[in-house]
Amino acid sequence: MREAGFNVRLLSAGPFVTMIDRFAVAPVLIPIAVEFRAPVGAVAIAATAYYFAYGLAQPFWGFASDRAGRIRIIRISLAATAAACTLTALAPNLDFLIGARILAGASVCAVLPSALVYIGDVIPFKTRQAVIADVLAAVAIGTAAGSLGGGFFARYLSWRLVFGVAAVIAAVLAVAMGRLPESNARPSTGGPIAQLRQAFHRPWARFLILFAIPEGAMVLGFLVYFAPALEATGTNAALAGLVVATYGAAVLAGTRVIKRFASRRGPRPHTWRPPVRPAPRWSRSPR
Questions:
Q1: What pLDDT does residue 86 have?
Q2: Domain that holds residue 239
């Protein structure tokens, strides 16, 4: 049964703002290089370090959410994201910017996974797919908003503004999400190493991990450097951001299709069948 006080729009706002921070960097790499008078390759380290921290910090946040609670971890992560985005917007030099982006990557990575696990804790299976689709729609909109907003601000105002906006939204959400009820999931047993060992013993977990490697290379590699590649050919930052934003539009369309499909089809009922056992010998003996 869904817990009282659950608000999917408020929960979805967390992943939304983290996607703004995550995808705003693509169209602003060259404007940052121009402002700091640094090679684009050196500025790209900020993006690489961000995604490296994003991946390494996720297991830590997962273990923490099992013990401290999903909503508490989301709020802590959003508060840290607000601080990291503020430092990014105020960065006086490239080294400071790289440090701020490392902090941002290690902060934002907790929000979306914790939100999805929270949904699994509080939403019944028969309606869970539709709620997840709504959260992923917010992810898609945040992806498009980050790419488009980063390019627009870099072109007409300053690349710093998109991170300032993300900082304000994250700070507001860190407070507002206190209205969401905490889930009552049982804490996981065993330490972090034991939990990782249990996960790797599951075939589906191994498949998803292996599948995520090329998917991550595509999303975090190609999309991040596609916008600077366009800008290197003379395309302005706003147009480059718009091109990358089409990825978010495609994800949004896909989530709407999946939600409609899931609502029509619904979960398959599980029917129990007794095990088939061979008849005893006396029943097969000739009369």
A1: 96
A2: 8-182+216-264
